[in-house]
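User: Structure tokens for this complex, please. No commentary.
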Amino acid sequence: MKWITAVIKPFTLDDVREALAEAGVQGMTVTEVKGFGRQHGHTELYRGAEYVVDFLPKLKIEVAAADDQAERVIEAISSAARTGKVGDGKIFVSDLEQVIRIRTQEVDADAL
Amino acid sequence: MRCEKRGFGIRDWGFGKARMPLRIALLVGLLGLAASAQAQSAPAVDSGDTAWMLTSSMLVLLMTIPGLALFYGGMVRAKNLLSILMQCFAITALVTVLWMLYGYSLAFSSEGMHAGTVNLHSIVGGLDRALLAGLTPASQYQTVPESVFVMFQLTFAIITPALIIGAFAERMKFSALLWFSGLWLTIVYLPMAHMVWGGPGSLLGDLGVLDFAGGTVVHINAGIAGLVACLVIGKRRGYPHTPMPPHNLGYTVVGASLLWLGWFGFNAGSAAAANGSAGMAMLVTQIATAAAAIGWMAVEWIAHKRASVLGIVSGAVAGLVAVTPAAGTCGPGGALVLGLIAGAVCFFSATKLKRKLGYDDALDVFGVHAIAGIVGALLTGPLASPKLGGFGTVESLGGQLWIQAKGVAFTIVWSAVLSWIILKLVDLAIGLRVDPEQEQIGLDLSEHEEKAYNLS
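Assistant:
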């Protein structure tokens, strides 16, 4: 199984969620986060006082996927979240050792 | 006394020179033979004028709560929002009580005043109207009940100290704020109002300074006090290196819009009647405000490559301030020019001058109110001339400009010196400033034990 974490532009969330649903994903976690990568912050100017805002608001989505599903999930996110402009975000993929559904105690693929 | 000085003058009836002192003489029961001869020609209470002045009083109160409170409140950080709202609200209540006790009397009593004579009562009114002595439903001021005039003038006395709080926002102790506001009203505002609007025998009134609705009394006075206050109390911790962006510009826009609306009471109400002067004051106020909003926006667009929301509303307020002394005498064309100049000049004073000189006038009381007030007070002179489309009786453009400059200079010195003394006294007695930890926590929690936002 794979643990797929993606940081995306907030306004792409609806498209990403739909694409993931089409890829068979039945659950996800979304967190509001701030950060920066190659896209640097922006400046704000109030009556001549200039502030550089380093950290930009992003959404972090986390999805657990079966091995044979992972490619589709990654493809779904990267196509739905892409605008082609700097700041589209990143996808991090790592191995996932175990999944347990708390209510039923099902594990791994059954718990996804 | 120049008739166009303020609407409470003579314009409408022509015989008003002796009217105001007469009125008060009547009220205190000093009815003389000469007075009774004039009393027969005094106008009756006019229901239209009264309705408009009742409305204007409400509009000017609306400028402070919630107009100014929201305008300022949006510009501070979230941890200080309540302190701003509280200060505006508390000043409203405090000034009302002081006005009833002695404020109206010190500002508007005509005891001992004689046209052309300079004495103590050219500077400050007597105490014969303290506790609103002699005020009854039948008391009359020009064509309105005197109670309405008392109320209308009270709302001006409320907003003036409230304007100053923007300069020392986010760091003054609430107790010090109350002492400062009460003392400043008493020592700076009341005499200033008396000197300009006290009628024949008042210092600046006799000088011929044109100030229709309070450019000197309200805006330069408050703006200079703001500058002195922010210098005496010192910068906010971290200024200018720590970002201190406005926490809710939405409030600021709502507040500025309420100021714009309320200002029609301030300026058109200063005609003291529902007449052509009030109508023209309203129109030129609208024109100057719009022109200043555009002026600030245009200059900012060129200088910063963006037109900002805070910029356009700041420009509008600068226009409102600038047209205040001119509203009774300038024409629509003069208002347009006055507004454009005020908007452009205040862009520089609020964004460039402050940065360069390094003082922390947190919400630009000096940069907007004093500067626009000075621009407006000076230009009021020439723009009153029919040669420049005005409706005043100014004959010499330069001569009136010089009289205006004397009025401005007097106001600056008066406000700066007395404000400095009051601030030092309050500082010595109880301290002006919260301690660094309280400032860090924010005044809402440290001074009022409340938070504006309890989110989750």
